[in-house]
Amino acid sequence: MGWDFIREGRNKPPVDIDEILINVRPGETRIALLGQTRLCELEIVRDDGRSVVGNVYLGRVEKVSRGLAAAFVDIGLGRSGFLALAEARPPEGGGAETGDRISDYLNEGDTVLVQVSRDPRGDKGAKLTTRITLPGHYLVYAPGLAEIKISRRIEDGDARARLGARMDSEAREGEGFILRTAAAAAADEDLAGEIGDLRAAWAAIGESRNTSKPPACLHEELDPPLRVLRDGGGRKIKRVAVDEAKVLAEIREYCRQSLPEMTAALDRHDGADDLFEAAGVEEQIERALSPVVALPSGGSIIIEETAALTAIDVNTGGAGKPGGREETALATNLEAAAESARQIRLRNLAGTLIIDFVPMRYRRDGAAVLAELRRAVAGDPRLPHVIGFTRLGLVEMTRRKQRRPLKTALMNSCRACAGTGAVKSPVTVAIEALRRVRREAAATPAAAWSLTAAPEVIEALRGPAAAALEETEARLGRPLRLTSGGALPGEGFGIAPAEAGGNGEDG
């Protein structure tokens, strides 16, 4: 890819989702969102791990922690949900500057209405908020917000003014609305119909609250295929392909009632090839699990996920541009900014993210890279916030957490490396095993000792660690019997007393 193409591409709008593929199999449903045939987002739903984000619960406060400025709320999920002070405050209530405390709003034993904003993860319970929002296709209903907000992606001034005036006349006291991007093309009757539906849903929650005992689920989010269509459907979607008749029928009925313009895009995939295979999605999923992503110019980005943050490192890969080092750095960084935004959404990376771009000398080049990164993340529904360059020259950004990262959804931690991504070298294991032999021999005298380890560890004992083996045998006063155990993991070994005699080599 040439530099001129990259420079011209800077002002292009973000790639829109134009195709949705829904693959249904026993125990699992996969939903792929594609833009120009490239996989932009993947959601995996399994019967044993359904998301509860968006569900509304009537909970009971189990504990109020002044130290954490939070409350732990039983919502019936087995683990208590976490309700931080900022999420317990009413929209027009106090703030951090007022010195309020969590006990100003909640006490142990209180009943509280909450919504899940992030799924339980690891040893952490669900993240909760008392600021309930009910999403529709065109807008989000926010009872208690008393404010009208309009999507940043609606840039036309006339459209923003029209929508603002329309919602000002529609909103009742204490109601708030967030206008989504799709609202720009909505007719007044479409907006009015959806507002009526969302008000009815809120009224139903209120009625259930009066008749339910905590913990109780009062409102469930739509099933994932329907939710994806509600949040991302519209006239820009050219095709929604489903490979299961029952799910397609449910989607068709939903579209008939709520998204009639989507009905023509629905398609039943019943070909001989698997839906994802036919669209090239399986191959793209495999690539999304690799830490290294190639860039068109020959450079690459390396993605490292940790518990605290995600780091993305940009490399030129030796690629050169006619303009020299600075031109190469800028061109590579512009490519990396666009690809990083895509990978962040595809892999569902969230929390704090750090990008280490190739160093650039000129401030204008840094500004261009930031502009490209902000352009590339503009279409991400998780609302990434690009903060900017730190003093160390790293770009810092954040992205809202909701569901599990793709890697967590598809992979388990490596048993051999305990999730670190690395294992001890054969030499390290060999020397560790010899230390253990000396300790065992000192504690339990025996006529001889045997050591069983993986073949590569035995080879290390006969090669790079031979001097350590010789010293150990000298301390033992006899040869150490070595046995190659092919079934042992690389870091495992076994030590046991043995009968005297033999040449110390069993295999």
Report the top-level CATH class of the largest domain: Mainly Beta
- Give the low-confidence spans: 1-11
Strand content: 25-35%
Based on the structure given, which CATH architecture of the largest domain is correct? Beta Barrel
Largest sheet entry: 6 strands, antiparallel
| Radius of gyration from the alpha-carbon trace, in angstroms | 29 Å
Net shape: globular
| Proportion of helical residues | 25-40%
CATH homolog superfamily of the largest domain: Nucleic acid-binding proteins
Report how far apart the termini are. Answer: 55 Å
According to CATH, the fold-level topology of the largest domain is OB fold (Dihydrolipoamide Acetyltransferase, E2P)
Strand segment tally: 24
Give the tally of structural domains: 4
Number of helices: 14
Helix/strand/pairing category: alpha+beta
**Mean pLDDT score:** 88
Written account of the structure:
The protein is 32% helix and 25% strand. It contains 14 helices and 24 strands. The radius of gyration is 29 Å and the shape is globular.
